[in-house]
Amino acid sequence: MNAFWIAVIGSSALAFITKFLGASVPESFLSHPRILRINSLIPIALLTALIAVNTFAVKTKLVLDHRALGIAAALALLIAKAPFPVVVVGAAVTSALAYRYF
């Protein structure tokens, strides 16, 4: 057995233990108001970080390119209270035009 398989089995065991411990948390702890507030904000923070990394990074470099213009267009449309499909299409069109012509 080489190092690759040891890493695969070890990470699988760690994932199982983490999931088991997460399922073993008592309900009284999870129903605390502070925990409920934190749990409601975690997906928003993770999605924001994912969007930022995918917009401003190429491998290990920070870049400012057509994707940033798409995010700026989406932000402008959100501030203008546009419907979600309009925001998505507007950001995609802006990003595509910037990619094509700049």
Describe the overall structure.
The protein is mainly alpha-helical and 102 residues long. The chain folds into 2 domains: 1-26; 27-101, no CATH class. 79% of the residues lie in helices and 4% in strands. Strands 1-2 form a two-stranded antiparallel sheet. Strand 1 (57-58) and strand 2 (61-62) form a beta hairpin. Helix 4 runs antiparallel to helix 5 (84-101). The N and C termini lie far apart (51 Å). The model has no long low-confidence stretch (mean pLDDT 95).
What secondary-structure arrangement, pairings included, does this model have?
Elements: H1 3-23, H2 27-30, H3 33-56, E1 57-58, E2 61-62, H4 66-79, H5 84-101
Antiparallel strand pairs: 1-2
Helix pairs in contact: 4-5
Task: Output the keywords.
single chain, 5 helices, mainly alpha, flat, 79% helix, 102 residues, two-stranded antiparallel sheet, 2 domains
Q: Uncertain spans, ≥5 residues at pLDDT below 50?
A: none
Distance linking N and C termini: 51 Å
Total strands: 2
C-alpha geometry? flat
Mean pLDDT: 95
Instruction: Name the assembly state.
Output: single chain
**Overall domain count:** 2
- The level of helicity is over 70%
Portion in beta strands: under 5%
In short:
The protein is mostly helical. It has 5 helices and 2 strands; from the N terminus they run αααββαα.
